[in-house]
Queue: 2 jobs
Job 1
Amino acid sequence: MPWIQLRINTTNDLAEQISEQLEESGAVSVTFQDTYDNPVFEPLPGETKLWGNTDVVGLYDAQTDIAELQAILNLDQYSYKIEQLEDKDWEREWMDNFHPMQFGKRLWICPSWRDIPDPNAVNVMLDPGLAFGTGTHPTTALCLTWLDSLDLNNKIVIDYGCGSGILAIAALKLGAERVIGIDIDPQAIQASRDNAERNNVSQKIELYLAQDLPDNLQADVVIANILAGPLKELAPQISKLVKTDGKLGLSGILANQSQSVCEAYKTQFELDPVIEQEEWCRITGKKK
């Protein structure tokens, strides 16, 4: 069916209020977009991330009365645009544009509706959905490539901020003996559990909410793909999870934030050169 899209340019202070008004006026969905299309990392589970100049975008049935909508929302007070969206099978078009992706030498992330390019490769089956990482974002790609470069045989791995479980499942498929996934959001825990079952590795993964972690938990490899702020704040806790001589991988960090994150970890780790991709970066190191 055809749709009408209403795009209102506003500030982050007003975006939430406008979002509520759009929902009350009959919008079937409301999203936030950065006006200047700056690269923004996926927000933490449960967090709504807004930016300095924000577009609030509402989607309405094409039969919506535009004049009535303009009056209800008092649109004259905003800079806005109303446009008709082409009638397409959006789900099919989206599926057609999601392809298997290779990371490193061995690892592929494959949606379930596509043929596996290399049956002899390490294939993770993961369909994009609610939570929180599919491999398309540079930070996830950086982490997957790093995992592919490691010898994970007989290793214990912790995925801190597991989201969809993509990194945890990849680690298991790459040979890890056991993986512990940690997140602050119960939906992420459920998504990781579902994806682990889909990939037949559920017997080797343990999942915990952050507040429920067992005491004295440690691993040979710890990976955390969250955001620079939480990575710095959580540095003492994350560092304790890494065994002596164990490996640490951090991402979710803009390149201009890398130095401050390195500062938070350099006393306990011998850090490698920072790797950058599309304004994002990955920090890795070995526990002293």
Job 2
Amino acid sequence: MSRPTVRRALPVVLLSTLVLALPVTTAAAAPGAETLTPTCSPAPPVSHPGCGTAYEGAPLPDGTPNQVVQLSGDDRYATAVAIARHGFPQADVAVLVSGEDRHLVDALSAGPLARTLAAPVLLAARDAVPAATADYLRSTGVQSVLLVGGDDALSATTPDRLRALGITDVQRVAGADRYATSRALAAFMPTRTHGWAASGEDAHLVDALAAAGPAARLGEPLVLVADDDPIPAGDALRTLGVTQTTVAGGPEGVAPEALAALPAPHRAAGTDRYATAALVADESVQRGVDDQDVVFAPGVTGHLVDALAAGPLGRATLLVGDEQASYDAVEAWFETYGAGRVTAVGAVEIDG
């Protein structure tokens, strides 16, 4: 297998921060699809008409090297829908989160829960359900929607807007703050011995985004840790049976004193966000995540929301940007694992 090369390039479209030059191979035959079976124990926070039902998921890689899938839309809302149509062509349940940057943190732990429900993560504005989101809900026949975050993220009138679209059940998971919301989401995850943790500080949210895909694939909880009050995060993980925790990011995000509150913690931390994401991805591969089916998501401020929507796909995730460190991390990944299928989301564009 020839190793793809990565080169520096100028942005070529309005939203792109990176263009990767990889050999693109068109698959010779259509692959099969993933089977998604909702986990309904513990009982989900929203009614699920398909518990125990097999749903069609994303197309499986067919083994062709250097395969590229591009998932993007005209804006962040349409990009989330493009990801949903790829990963969740059949769905009875959807998870709806704020698509506004200031509320990004509310949904960082939503990806793992969404996948256990065989549900995509879709985006909305505080006081509106965008047309792309509404079209997916109608066309897919979604019956139940779980809102994540408080009224300041998705207003109290959001359920009425969803019911007007034919949604029969709308529920909400929200805590007093971002950390409590994270723990509330994790509480609906199945029992696991391994879990994930990351900082909930605005400057370090990108670490949680990198961990969401692997946590979703493995069906493991992802909680946010507050440096000044880490004990609740540790207690939440232990309640789920977690005896070992992978912490995404270095001490600037989760301080050593906070780390000590988590069950048997160890870090996956690099010198920057790109190296950290690569280390998180590498650890996920060691835990059973496919190294030949990876997501490339924007790792730059203003486009992080695309990585949020990609979490439920359940894939190792590399964050990319316009810095040399990003190119170095991607190059190192391919040197180690080669290239199978790469799915580029949002502002990441792959140039064949």
